[in-house]
Design goal:
Chain lengths: 262, 262, 262
């Protein structure tokens, strides 16, 4: 099954819709990328809100346009709050996205991520090692890094999509986005992005924002990947290293225009 | 009651005093803005310290020049630690500042923020929706964003100031700073600042630093607003988007000079 | 006992080894510097992973190349997780590094840091006030800042090194690195680095990465100091203030070359 490309005008249309809708994204994410995640969503025109206490998280996710669950610095207490938020999101039909950071490498989060799978995520975004581990085919990468390439995890991603009903994204040199039936490939970006913490995590937040939009969820999620890849490519051109990449990337997301995406 | 302007030479004098005194600000703030908050205080010449465990927080706030309480990512445990810090601050006459992030939108923090009001904050800094909610007049914004404009919340701010004895700041396109009797207006900045996470939160930290200084607290707090607005304006001029805004803003705070403020 | 200088070609060799080995550093660090720490390690070619839950931390530290314990925002729960990680690290001979932020100033962390000393840290990195307090000679600085200069803490550092078996680093205008017998001095950097939060904390992370490398640990740790001082100096030259320093510093670490170090 050869992946297709997302038509450029679709990515442009999703970007325009995102800016008009300005989805409010409830982010329950790891300690390391809180600020970067919020700034990426703001730069794109979405609205982030980090709400973490269980009681508040359950009250807030129904008010949000989408919910992001990233288990990078999972604790038992955060796990309870995430579960409460996910259940409330489901009751109110708020779409939620799972970023299963380092699943497979550590038992506690692996068990938690598998438990979350039964709560109908709208999308799952991980690197190849994470998607393989979540699909039950391999036991994890090196810390938070993948030891597998994205293409090799594509069958696992497709199985996972069919089993859970989620759109599954495997990121790497190319990103693959699958609903289990149809698969889209997204190119762009560059290896400098692997020298900046959280480029995967912030993509998951953009995926969450795009899951709040109407239209084809498969295409909306692929458009999220394309926005981040495209802005990443612009930023790499305009930077001297990972330090200057960060402001350049946020500026590129802010200035992203549909014509360039198309 | 038409707001006055802060005389420019007053802002310059407060900046000079701040740099000489280098107040030590005990920051109990949200997960998203920890690093930005510390860097803003350092750039201005103040000294930040984040101490979070209840026992340590109560030991530390009396040693600090001022205490900041920001409830953006409140948890039950953090609430207990904040309460301990506030009570210790009051015993030692350390001024403390409340940033009631998203109050009104979420029950747990709304109840907590109302409880804190009885502990005599030196200042309260919020957007219009937050100040309206805290004054008991409206039920909150959209996530962490205001759905009201600052001017519309001015009467509520003045009432809140009279009721609590705090200097109340409502931020927006213009900032309003009131002791319930006299009100000062501060202009500057720009909408790009709403596309960067934490520009309000860091202002609250600067307000806390300025509450540690001698002289008129109303003017000290208005000077804090003016420093941030002015540096924000410089940074907007020197940036291409929200990414390059952040380093430019810290550089502008670092290089802020009294003559330009005046 | 006059400190020696680290031969420049040694620092260059350590940098090369670091990039080849790409040590996986398990960082249990404070809330304020999570992102900066990860980005510094990535820029240098190491691999950071923040794992915080006690059960996971104990599972992860044996898989890591080195473990960093930074007590800047210690809580009782984090203390338990840190202890579990340190004990697991010792069982698997993973070297671990202690950054005793603000020890001496606050009782809870002071007691905790003293308890940790019995678990054989590979290295300890602190400012003068922290090293004096940890050595039992003085009671702490002003918040997280030192009120003593590095040279004055050198005898305490040497005693602490002899007593614990750790390499002890006292940082300041010059850094001193001692095994209790031999001491190396490292110059460079500049005062602008004291206006950016976490420059000491990120050095501790680089020290941890270098403790994972083979060869003389004393020289490896001094090389870590030299990399950070050298990149700091380059970044100061290329920046207009603490804001532009941060991206310039990450770029300088990324582009650091052995010849310049030598």
């Amino acid at each position: 099954m050869q992946p297709d490309l997302l038509p450029g005008d679709r990515a442009a249309a999703v970007l325009q819709t995102l800016r008009l809708a300005s989805p409010l994204v409830h982010c329950m994410t790891n300690d390391v990328v809180q600020s970067f995640t919020a700034n990426v969503l703001l730069a794109l025109g979405a609205a982030p809100a980090m709400v973490t206490e269980a009681e508040e998280a359950a009250q807030f996710s129904p008010q949000a346009s989408a919910l992001l669950i990233n288990i990078g610095t999972l604790t038992a207490e955060r796990g309870r709050a995430m579960l409460a938020a996910v259940q409330a999101a489901n009751k109110s039909s708020t779409p939620w996205v799972l970023d299963p950071v380092a699943v497979g490498a550590l038992s506690f989060r692996t068990q938690f991520a598998h438990q979350l799978l039964s709560f109908h995520p709208a999308a799952i975004r991980g690197n190849a090692s994470e998607i393989l581990a979540l699909a039950g085919e391999r036991s994890g990468g090196r810390g938070v890094d993948s030891t597998d390439d994205a293409r090799s995890a594509l069958p696992a991603a497709q199985n996972l999509a069919r089993r859970t009903g989620a759109i599954v994204v495997v990121t790497g040199e190319q990103d693959y986005v699958s609903d289990g039936d149809k698969t889209l490939a997204v190119a762009g970006g560059g290896t400098l992005m692997t020298r900046v913490v959280g480029t995967g995590c912030v993509l998951s937040a953009v995926v969450a924002a795009c899951c709040a939009l109407s239209g084809s969820r498969l295409e909306n999620v692929a458009a999220a990947c394309q926005m981040v890849k495209h802005a990443g490519g612009i930023a790499i051109q305009g930077s001297r290293g990972p330090g200057s990449f960060i402001p350049a990337f946020l500026d590129a997301l802010y200035g992203l225009n549909g014509e360039a995406l198309a």
